[in-house]
Amino acid sequence: MNNKEDFKNLIQKLLINIGEDVTRKGLLKTPERCANMYSELLCKTGEDPKEEIDTFFESETDEPILIKDIEFYSLCEHHMLPFYGLCHVAYIPNKNKITGLSKIVRVVENASKRLQIQENMTNMISKAIDEKLNPKGTYVIIEAEHMCIAMRGIKKTGSKTITTKKTGIFETNSDLVRNIDLKIKG
C-alpha cells in the first residue's frame, strides 16, 4: 500500500459519508484495520505470479500432474467484494521438467491477491505455468462464489462461476480434459 495514512483518511471519510459517527467506540480503529486488511488482501498487486516458480526438478512422468482443491480468496475489481472458491491446476511436463507442488499453490495464491475478475485470474495462472515450465499443456479451472452476486444486486447465494483455461494438448484432446474433470469431481 502506497500511503497507509491516506488510506486511513479515505476510510474515515467513507464512514462519515455513509452517516457513521467515527468517534464511536466500535469505529475508532476501523480505518487502520481496513488499511491493514486491504494491504494483506492485495499484497501481490503488480507482481507476476510466474516468479513463484523458482524451483525445478526432473521427472520421468509424462502424465498429467493435477493439484486440485486449492482454496483462494480474491477481490472483484468491479465492487471490491470478495470472490472465493477452489482452483484446480493440471499440467503435463515437457522434457521431464516439473516444479514443486507448493510452487503451483503459490502461483494461485499470488494470482488471487489483487483486484481482478475471475476470468483474468484463470488466465494469469495458466500463463505463469506455461511461461516457467513450458509444459505440453495446462488446464486451469476455477470455481468461485462471488459476494457481488450474493450480497447485492440479484442477491443469490450459493451460485458458482466456473472459468477454465486450456493450453497445448488440453486444447485438442477432449479425452484428456474429460479425465482431469473426472478426477476433480472424484
Automatic annotation (TrEMBL):
Pfam families, per the entry: GTP_cyclohydroI
Record keyword Cytoplasm present: no
Domain GTP cyclohydrolase I: 9-177
Keywords for this protein: GTP-binding, Hydrolase, Metal-binding, Nucleotide-binding, One-carbon metabolism, Zinc
Binding site for Zn(2+): C76, H79, C148
EC number: 3.5.4.16
Pathway as given in its UniProt record: Cofactor biosynthesis; 7,8-dihydroneopterin triphosphate biosynthesis; 7,8-dihydroneopterin triphosphate from GTP: step 1/1
UniProt catalytic activity: GTP + H2O = 7,8-dihydroneopterin 3'-triphosphate + formate + H(+)
Entries under Gene3D superfamilies matching the protein: 1.10.286.10, 3.30.1130.10
Top-rank taxon, per record: Bacteria
Family: Belongs to the GTP cyclohydrolase I family.
HAMAP family found in the cross-reference section: FolE (MF_00223)
Subunit structure: Homopolymer.
Protein name per its UniProtKB record: GTP cyclohydrolase 1
Species of the source: Gemelliphila asaccharolytica
Gene field: folE
